[in-house]
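U., I forgot to send this yesterday:
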Amino acid sequence: MQLRSRNPRAFILSRPVLPCAQCGTTLFGPEWSEYIDDRRVRHLWSCDACDYRFESIVCFPAPESIAA
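Result:
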């Protein structure tokens, strides 16, 4: 069975993948995530290559701004 998205670009952009802020190694997923509220998520990232740790916050638009 294969999972297919109707919009592959949206699927790729929705995945939490980013480079390490210190050495640039690609990090494929956060070590830990926390829902701050219904519009914000905090991720803790840890790099296996250089042992650097940092946080990022993802902010989603309010539902009323999506419909506009």
